[in-house]
Amino acid sequence: MLRFSLAIHIMKLGGSVIFKGENLLDMEPEDRSLSGLLSFESPVEIPGVSNIDFLNMAYNARRRKLGIPELGPIEFYAYLFPKLELMNMTSDFRNRNVSEGFSGGERKRNEILQLEVLEADLSVLDEIDSGLDADALQDVAKAVNGLLTPKKSVLMVTHYRRLLEFIQPSYGYTLSR
């Protein structure tokens, strides 16, 4: 059985990071992702693994963790198709290998698609707007706005104000030296 871990890499300098009552710094990457925390900075390419297979396996791993029955391929496709439309992605995208040969916009759309499919409770987006043209930026912003619900949170790091033309954060912080 193939197992994938969607996770962030954490370098512990001190302190703790509490999410849902658990210290994320004490958890293995796979456990963090199964708990609902997903983060991307530069997603890796996975040659030979199609997007639909990857998403279906990851989605079912999360469902197993939550004690929910897994979806078969046909049911999963029915779940996935509206999310592809939301991301302005064609259905042939599902058969492409994970992140392999993707343009910057396709890579970012795929990141958000993964967050949407896996129903992340907390999404950490680092420079999600980097390298996007105006159309891709609007598509990604629309999808990020769709991630924001009363039960889901997004922590977004950006160096550009242009993203804030399309995403209205609940809170904003500016860091300076």
Automatic annotation (TrEMBL):
PANTHER family: ABC TRANSPORTER I FAMILY MEMBER 6, CHLOROPLASTIC
Source organism superkingdom: Eukaryota
Keywords noted in UniProt: ATP-binding, Nucleotide-binding
UniProt GO MF annotations: ATP binding
The protein, known as: Iron-sulfur cluster formation ABC transporter
InterPro entries documented for this protein: FeS-cluster_ATPase_SufC (IPR010230), P-loop_NTPase (IPR027417)
